[in-house]
Amino acid sequence: MSYANFSLSLEGHIAHLQLNRPDAYNSMDQAFWRDLPAAIRSIDEAADARVIVISSTGKHFSAGMDLEVFSNPNPTLFQGERGRQAEGMRRLVQQLQACFNVLEEVRMPVITAIQGGCIGGAVDMVCAADMRYCTADAFFQVKETELGLAADLGTLQRMPRLIAPGLARELAYTARKMPAAEALQCGFVNRVYDDQDSMLAEVMQIAQQIAERSPLAVTGTKQMMNYARDHSVADSLTMMATWQAGMFQPTDMIQTFTAKMGKTTPDYEGLRPVTEPLT
Question: Which GO biological process categories is it annotated with (predicted)?
């Protein structure tokens, strides 16, 4: 499929989604909010990919929400009885939140490779990814308070779990830019690279390492780590035991050991595609 805001390719079990509106600083217009979750879900449903890389073209990763989304809202949103207006607005925000929630819900890890500015809604997006890498010229800006609103698509909920809560509050309250060096120091990004080419080259190597592991083991690891983030240690250990009791089979382990002894590469079965429920 073709998309207005990005290209999507698959090579060696790595899905590469690349934002491609550099003249508009890869801002997120109305088509983006429709296409991104559809594209991510299609990757998950097909199950050919074992890892997803999100990068972009041009000077900046993304300037966040496109102004057209603010300037051309659905006119019915602000019409009629106030309680129903508010319910409609709440539902709209939840629909936009779901566009980034899908990055956590998808069965395979999501890696983001960031150059230049990562602003507003783009910070919401990368916070929902499993891993973040950036170039030395990158910066991150929770810009919403500067515009007169609160960030509402995940940054305020996810960033305090990724970095020190006090620093997350500082960034959100002040809307100041966090440069790449600071993002690395506080643990928001895994690594900083001199330029975009070297970043993408190494990110693809990391993605390839993930793709070579058992897809069942990787998806179980992702799901259990996400569960542990949102629950107590005791509850998370119980869930881990339940996952192992239900999902663990020795097939992939035996294949791994056999490949090691034979000095070959294991060829794991992929995850099953998502099919329509039986009716």
Answer: fatty acid beta-oxidation
- 259 and 266 Cβ atoms separated by less than 8 Å: yes
**Structural tokens at position 51:** 């890892």
- Measure Cα distances from 13 to 16, 47, 181, 204, 266 in Å: 10, 9, 31, 11, 14
Query: Are 164 and 253 within one domain?
Result: no
Residue type at 60 in one-letter notation: H
Task: Please identify, among 211, 231, 249, the residue that sits at the C-terminal boundary of a domain.
Answer: 211
Q: What is the mean pLDDT of the chain?
A: 93
DSSP, collapsed to helix, strand or coil, labels residue 163 as coil
CA–CA separation, 104 and 128 (whole Å): 6
Both 228 and 121 in one domain: the answer is no
Q: What is the CATH number of the domain that holds 234?
A: 1.10.12.10
CATH code of 173's domain: 3.90.226.10
For residue 223, what pLDDT is reported?
96
More confident residue, 57 or 89: 57
Q: List the beta bridge partners of residue 142.
A: none
Q: Round the CA-based radius of gyration of the chain to a whole number and report it.
A: 20
What are the tens digits of pLDDT across the range 167-206?
999 999 999 999 999 999 999 999 999 999 999 999 999 9
**Of the candidates 106, 111, 107, 100, which has an alpha carbon nearest to the alpha carbon of residue 54?**
111
C-alpha distance from residue 10 to each of 188, 196, 211, 223, 241 (Å): 27, 20, 12, 23, 34
- What's the rounded Cα separation, in Å, for the pair 61 and 219? 27
pTM equals 0.93
Q: Are residues 193 and 252 in the same domain?
A: no
Question: Which residue, among 99, 95, 96, 2, has the nearest Cα to 41 in the 3D structure?
Answer: 99
190 and 229, same domain (yes or no): no
What's the CA gap between 205 and 256, in Å, rounded?
20
DSSP single-letter state for residue 23: G
